[in-house]
Request: fold
Amino acid sequence: MNYCNTNIFEKPLNLLDVSILYVEDDKNAQLAMSAFLKKKVSRLIIAENGKEGLDLFFKYMPDILIVDIMLPVMNGLEMIKKIDKKYGTKIYITSAYSDRESLLEAIDAGIDHFLVKPINFKKLKEYIIKDYKEKSRKDRLKKQTAKIKKSERYFKELFNNALVGIYQTSVDGKILWTNPALYKMLGYSSLSELSGAINAKDVYVNKEKREHIVSVLNKNGHIDAIESKWITKNKRHIYVRETAHKTVDDEGNVVYVGTIENITREKKAELKLLQIAIELKNLMSNANIPIIGIDKYQKITDWNTAAQDLFVYKKADVNGKNFFKLLVPKAEMVKLNKVIQDAFDGTTVNNYKCNLKTGDNKQLKILLNTTIKHDYYGNIKGIMIIMQDISEIEEYKATLEKKVIERTNKLKLALDREKELGKLKSRFIAMASHEFRTPLAAINFAAGFLKKYDAKLDTEQKNKKFQKIETQVKHMTKLLESILHIEKNETVQEYAKPQMIRFIDFIDPIIKEACRQTNFSHKVELSVDKSDNMIYIDTEKGRNIFLNLLVNAIKYSPEENTVYVKCYCTDNETVIEITDLGMGIHPSDIELIYDTFHRGKNVETIQGTGLGLSIVKSGVNLHNGDISVKSEPGQGSTFTLRFPLNNLPVLLSKPNKE
Reply:
């Protein structure tokens, strides 16, 4: 190969990827350097003077410049002073002698190595390999830097123009950065406004969802496409799909980086479609009313669960079957066929009442409505028959009509009874008036007699008149007490307050009072099987019970002089029998004796109000007790009373007026 002033030597071998510009006017030096370098580097450029070397330098920008200090036209020092170190070229100076001044000047010019001639090629090789490695490292770094800058530009462009939101937050939820898409999505004008206003957890409508996401991130290191509901600056709710991972920033802090996709429209559309689908499914499959679809050939195409339950046919059994043959009785065929045909002609029907038959041969009363089904092109392809089973309603209607009649009759009976009660009360008023008139007349007569003959009467005669007045006053008092007691039963609820007491101690004062009220006309014989027999009774209300029974026994035994009281106890109750040998009770009166104002047919000549036994019956009921009577006309009566022991107090309800 000829070596001219601008000789370039290149070898496509596996050499060091280094280009070298060698500036030397000595041919022997050129040949020696060329022989050495052509085996080491990929490109060699040779120049013979400083000016030529400077031109070739700017033309080829070599990696290494090897230049001799002593050169024609432009020496080596002048040449390297014109080369800026920014180009990154390594500069080697060669010289046949080593003077301190030249070396210092070369160092000031920015050389990298100084070689003394004759050149030590081993040293030169070390310099070249070292600089090659440095160049390779810088090239790689430069390429990597370029790639990084390119990636940064790409990422920045992608980051700023992305349609999805991108974020980075700290573990405690501080918003470190977001792209414009995200802060605009949330209604903010800038990242600083967003991060200064809220924390990451504040965007979640459900704060627990944020806690769940953080928990999954901390556990798995990532989350994939989790859907959440967020709230924007103006309090509007949006749906988002979030993907994120846990990482570490440049300072070693744990951060969360993720993307946010606004799926509000998608979600609303999805929810709307889902709602429609659910409504249709519920309407068709789970509706409480039977829905049947038929095509223009009257074949069944749709059959929901309610239809299955009502007509006792499974969907698989009716698909494709003729609607009329399967469900329509012969009597309904003509009219219902017209209704169906009208629907196919575009005229629907509402609330058409007809009969349909079921799979178990029953007939149902059906309220029927039709609606049209269209195909994609708007043509009528079938109809939907929506039904309501009104069989029970019709039956209930008939039952109601029957009940109305029954209630009307009951009301009539109640009115008749009310009239009867009115008559009874009128009868009582008349009776009470009569009862009051007699003692009042007696009192008036006695008082007048005392007034007129006071001076002529002795003490005994006066005492008899006073006793007469006192007796009649007591009689009137008893009448008033009976009336008030009945009135109280009619209007006030009463409670019994029973206590455990020896029967003898309870009944003895009542017997004495009954004898006193009847002027000691009879004696009362008391017998008990045990002296310590107990009775569980309200003493005040018990007094009314037994006083009325004893007074009645004495009053309705005018031909006899003894009433018998017998008491014995079982494990659970105290039993008392009160027996008289008087006029007895007529059989037709036995069932009525406890009714208010009722008086027997055989006692109309004896004073009375018909209240005593009513008071007795209510008092016994109040103690959860029982009363029964055995009697025959002219043979006397025995009333048997049973009082439970340790019975709980009970409420005496108002009498039933019906």
